[in-house]
Amino acid sequence: MNLWTSLRRVPMAHSACIGVLALAVLGAVAVAACGGGSNSNGPGETPGDGSAAVSPSSAAASSTKAALSGSVTVFAAASLTDAFNAIGKEFEQANPGTKITFSFAGSSTLATQITEGAPADVFASADTRQMKVVTDEGNAAAPVIFATNVPVVVAPKGDTRVQSFADLARPGVKLVLAAPTVPIGNYARTIFANASGANGISATFSADVLKNLQSNETNVKAVIAKIQVGEADAGVVYTTDAAAAKGEVTTIAIPKEYNVVAEYPMALLKTSSHLAVAEAFVQYVTSGAGQAILKGYGFGGAG
To answer: Does 213 score more than 80 pLDDT?
Structure first.
């Protein structure tokens, strides 16, 4: 090997070393870049924790409440039949997977059934007295007033024997009422008492009216049914029942100074097997949507 050849190889070896060094540096940079990805803070990540981003949709899904599911039985006063049937349909449409079954009757009948152990989830009464029967036995939670109603006198369409409230005391008038234990029957008798005495229509008004009583019915629907077919000259029902029978009966207002306002309480029953659905139903009835339906059927608001 001559000197010239040796001198030419020295730079080549030096160049090779430089090339190896360059490759090593590039490799280190690449490794650092790959390792740094686990510590980079992408959108939605907590700095330095390496966690995956949480999408808004998955976060919303995790916070959504479980859908309601189950069937409940609602014991409700007969005067609530039309309004509650409408509310039940709306509730089921808003909550697929739920089923509301109603049992309509006089509040006193329903209260007795509940205290005797009949299975139900919600009780809606037409007065506070029958609700107290249930709560005093420890069968229901604290009730809430959800609606009001006003009693009226009804007479068969076209019949002229009873044209005013005072006419109920006329001899020979055939009067039909609900039984005293039924809310509307109790309200009627309270009204008659209010119209008696020194400040009433006459001192014996209540006694005179009750002399005309032909029958005591089990609920308000039975009272108005007898008026519709002409089996009696007059009866006392709720404004809502008279409105439902419009065209078949004549409605006669009771003077405000003698009349009462019927309050409707509702409560969850301790025997409820689907408490979440029962609670949701009560909340729906007292909500704006439920109150609007009740108003459409002639009921007044709770306050």
So the answer is: yes
CATH of the domain at 240: 3.40.190.10
Q: Which residues contact 226 (CB under 8 A, 6 or more apart)?
A: 176, 215, 217, 232, 235
Does 275 score more than 70 pLDDT? yes
Per-residue model confidence (pLDDT) at position 39: 41
Q: Show contacts of 88-93: CB within 8 Å, 24+ apart.
A: 90/284, 90/289, 90/290, 90/293, 91/280, 91/281, 91/284
94 and 122 co-located in one domain? yes
Residues 161 and 186 in one domain: yes
Q: Compute the average pLDDT of residues 18-45.
A: 37
In a domain, 22, yes or no: no
> Between the CA atoms of 298, 139, 88 and 245, what dihedral angle is there, to the nearest 10 degrees?
-30
- What is the mean pLDDT of the segment spanning 207-220? 98
